[in-house]
Amino acid sequence: MSNADLSLVDAYWRAANYLSAGQIYLMDNPLLTEPLAPEHIKPRLLGHWGTTPGLNFIYAHLNRVIRDRDLDVLFVTGPGHGGPALLANTWLEGTYSETYPDVPRDGDGMRRLFRQFSFPGGVPSHVAPEVPGSIHEGGELGYSLAHAFGAAFDNPGLIVACVVGDGEAETGPLATSWHAGKFLNPQRDGAVLPILHLNGYKIANPSLLARIPHDELDALLRGYGYAPRYVEGDEPDAMHATMANVLDEVIDEIHRIKGTTERPTWPMIVLRSPKGWTGPSEVDGKPVEGTWRAHQVPLAGVRDNPSHLRQLESWLRGYRPDELFDADGTPRPELAALVPDGPHRMGATPHANGGLLLRELKMPGIRAHATEVVKHGTTHSEPTRVLGRMLRDVITLNADARSFRIFGPDETASNRLDAVYDVTGKQWQAETLSVDEHLVPDGRVVEVLSEHLCQGMLEGYLLTGRHGLFNCYEAFIHIVDSMFNQHAKWLKTHKKLAWRRPVASLNYLLSSHVWRQDHNGFSHQDPGFIDHVMNKKAEVVRVYLPPDTNTLLSVADHCLRSKDYVNVIVAGKNETPDWLDVDEAVLHCTRGAGIWEWASNDEDEPDVVLACAGDAPTVEVLAATKLLREHLPSLRVRVVNVVDLMRLQPDTEHPHGMPDREFDALFTTDKPVIFAYHGYPWLIHRLTYRRANHHNLHVRGYKEEGTTTTPFDMLVLNDMDRYRLVIDIVDRVPGLGPKAARLRQHMQDQRARHHAWIREHGEDLPEVRDWTWQ
Amino acid sequence: MSNADLSLVDAYWRAANYLSAGQIYLMDNPLLTEPLAPEHIKPRLLGHWGTTPGLNFIYAHLNRVIRDRDLDVLFVTGPGHGGPALLANTWLEGTYSETYPDVPRDGDGMRRLFRQFSFPGGVPSHVAPEVPGSIHEGGELGYSLAHAFGAAFDNPGLIVACVVGDGEAETGPLATSWHAGKFLNPQRDGAVLPILHLNGYKIANPSLLARIPHDELDALLRGYGYAPRYVEGDEPDAMHATMANVLDEVIDEIHRIKGTTERPTWPMIVLRSPKGWTGPSEVDGKPVEGTWRAHQVPLAGVRDNPSHLRQLESWLRGYRPDELFDADGTPRPELAALVPDGPHRMGATPHANGGLLLRELKMPGIRAHATEVVKHGTTHSEPTRVLGRMLRDVITLNADARSFRIFGPDETASNRLDAVYDVTGKQWQAETLSVDEHLVPDGRVVEVLSEHLCQGMLEGYLLTGRHGLFNCYEAFIHIVDSMFNQHAKWLKTHKKLAWRRPVASLNYLLSSHVWRQDHNGFSHQDPGFIDHVMNKKAEVVRVYLPPDTNTLLSVADHCLRSKDYVNVIVAGKNETPDWLDVDEAVLHCTRGAGIWEWASNDEDEPDVVLACAGDAPTVEVLAATKLLREHLPSLRVRVVNVVDLMRLQPDTEHPHGMPDREFDALFTTDKPVIFAYHGYPWLIHRLTYRRANHHNLHVRGYKEEGTTTTPFDMLVLNDMDRYRLVIDIVDRVPGLGPKAARLRQHMQDQRARHHAWIREHGEDLPEVRDWTWQ
Question: Which GO BP annotation is one of this protein's (chains A, B) (predicted)?
Answer without folding.
Answer: carbohydrate metabolic process
